[in-house]
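Q: What structure does this chain adopt?
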Amino acid sequence: MKDSANAALYESQTKIYPREVSGRFQNLRATAVVALLGLYYLLPWLRWNGRQAVLFDLPARKFHLFWLTLWPQDLIYLTALLITAALSLFFFTTLFGRVWCGYACPQTVWTEVFIWMERWTEGDRRKRMKMDQAPWSLDKARRKTAKQFFWVMFSLFTGLTFVGYFTPIAELSGKVATASLSGWESFWIFFYSAATYGNAGFMREQVCKYMCPYARFQSAMFDRDTLIVAYDENRGEPRGGRRRSTDPAKAGLGDCIDCHKCVQVCPTGIDIRKGLQYECIACAACVDVCNEVMDNMGYEPGLIRYATENSVVGKTSHIARPRVFVYAALLLAVISLTGFSLATRTPLGLDIIRDRNSLYRVVDGGRIENVYSLRIINMDNEAHTLAVAVTGSVEMSVETEPATLTVDAGTIEAVAARISAPADVQAGGQDISIRIYTADGKLSVEEPARFMAPAR
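A:
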């Protein structure tokens, strides 16, 4: 009794052997895979103004994105990027369903490449299934070894490229060639390689079905007007096999010939004829293979197609819906505000630290002097010569060491500033503002500070 209960509750995972299919949507997927992986692998090698175009330089705390250099002070832009990504996901999911999963998700993209390598080395679906069931032989060992070799090398190349976004890729490649990688560089290369190998080589659809949170909350963004991969049950049922010359109407059959090809091509192994399921990644492999079957049978294509639930049952679909407008408005607002902020961003930063050794001192002429340390950050891609000015309740003067402030591109300079006020300045503390600016006045930044004077 106990064994039968366990059999009912647990089932071993059956390996999925996706069948190769061609068609409009699979050509689009292949194009997306090549374009996205090409972008991932080539982007670190692009140069911009004598440096790597995209580099997240963590030791220097600088993030280079072509012409733009971001600093830790610009963390707000990372927040804006994450909000934009989330809103984009909500917006496009509401309109087009899981199009991200089917065409652009890293798990989908890398898994597709691993399946390509598997087909090159082990053959089509039928040959792979037969080989896995057969006892070990020289041919089987040779093919399996070749597959593992390609998988491992491709994974290592992926891991190397990933680390190349944080350590200059040319420098990193030289370290690999001379076996002089640091401990952390080695760790992250092998860690990301192992993640790629495990996710795309072995877990595959298990990541989509059991690990990805998107599959679980996508239904919150779906409605009956969301585009999904749908099986036209009214047209396809009752399903059944028949000869090509058979008239389905006279035989009492629908257009579905129950060939199971839609199941064989599915990378997650579902039967789309059972309706919308969270495991469906909307890759449209079943659409292409079903259209091929319909064409061979002389039937109209589209038994399985991209459609909305309303259109499948003959109702009118509505693209313009309240949630679409809300997501679009929020997305446009975030993108516009971020773009405006970047366009008007001043690439200068100023941190002010008072001298802690003394609050004030009296200098020649009875003037009261405070000493500050100015930490000037040049976030621009060119050097700037700067001047310092101070404003307060009385006329004040400022002297810096060095007197001429030239800050190179992408550097931080610490400058000592002595600010003095007349002897009759208000006792105690008062608010002042310290401003740094370029000679042409195009760039400037101002920060508040506190000036201290003796009590009388």
